[in-house]
Amino acid sequence: MEQKDMVIVGAGGLGREVMWQLDIKNQQTARYNILGFVDNTAALQGKSINGYPVLGDESWLLARKTDICVLICIAKPGIRRAIFERLSENTCISFPNFHAADVCCSDFIQTGRGCIICLASILTVNINIGDFVIMCASCVVGHDATIGDFTTLYPGVTVSGAVHIGTDSEIGSNTTIIQGKNIGQNTIIGAGAVVTKDMPAFVTAAGVPARVFNDSGKDTLP
């Protein structure tokens, strides 16, 4: 099998974790020629991180004249979306999906492009995952769930059956969303929350059970 060139965008914590997981997967099946990181941080240019070079900033990728695969490892949905929109100007760049070596999932899952599913995650059946979704380590997604484009699930999230999560949302570490609930787009759920009712779009919620908070810190749902 001919190896494809691959870079990771983002040399922060998530990018380094995904690079490690990509290395493990590549040792099993040498699918990618891993070139290194691309990062816009000036202080990182020319550095080596965990054995891989920082090749340059986004301009390095935009100038690429031959095919290359990119994983965008930025946790914040809005930033991840903006990077994709800039990089998509170069038709040499493709955005494959990446599943870590021990991800357990059925054959009955629809997935967009550019998704990253990290170690020890479990996805059951009839799940619909949008584009550029990130699931960090040890997430569980139940039957008939839908996860919108550019949403991030942080470590240990449990999404029960028939849950719908809108686009560009962030679900904090160790959050549990119970069966059949809906979470609107651009919504943030704080770490450790238990979501027992639908959550509207463009809000922040936290707690057990999860409640929506306004800027003054007071909850706004009855």
Overview of this protein structure:
- There is one protein chain.
- The chain is an alpha/beta fold and 222 residues long.
- The chain folds into 2 domains: 4-96, Rossmann fold; 99-204, Hexapeptide repeat proteins (UDP N-Acetylglucosamine Acyltransferase, domain 1, 3 Solenoid), CATH 2.160.10.
- It is 14% helix and 31% strand.
- The chain is built from 3 helices and 25 strands.
- It has helices spanning 13-28, 58-62, 77-87, and strands at residues 4-9, 32-38, 48-49, 52-56, 68-72, 93-94, 98-99, 104-105, 109-111, 116-117, 122-123, 127-129, 134-135, 140-141, 146-147, 152-153, 158-159, 164-165, 170-171, 176-177, 182-183, 188-189, 194-195, 204-206, 211-213.
- The strands form 4 sheets. It has an 8-stranded mixed sheet, with no helix packed on it.
- α1 links the parallel β1 (4-9) and β2.
- The protein is globular and about 50 Å long.
- It starts with a strand and ends in a 9-residue tail after the last strand.
- The model has no long low-confidence stretch (mean pLDDT 95).
User: What is the fold-level CATH name, i.e. the topology of the largest domain?
Assistant: UDP N-Acetylglucosamine Acyltransferase, domain 1
Element pattern in H and E: EHEEEHEHEEEEEEEEEEEEEEEEEEEE
Strand content: 25-35%
Mean pLDDT: 95
Q: Helicity range of the residues?
A: 10-25%
Say which CATH homologous superfamily of the largest domain is assigned: Hexapeptide repeat proteins
* Poorly predicted ranges: none
Give the class-level CATH name of the largest domain: Mainly Beta
Shape: globular
Query: Count of DSSP helices?
Result: 3
Corresponding CATH architecture of the largest domain: 3 Solenoid
**Count of individual domains:** 2
Main sheet summary: 8 strands, mixed
Structure classification: alpha/beta
> What is the CA-atom radius of gyration, in angstroms?
18 Å
Main sheet: strand order? 7-10-13-16-19-22-24-25
- Tell me how many strands there are: 25
Distance between the termini: 58 Å
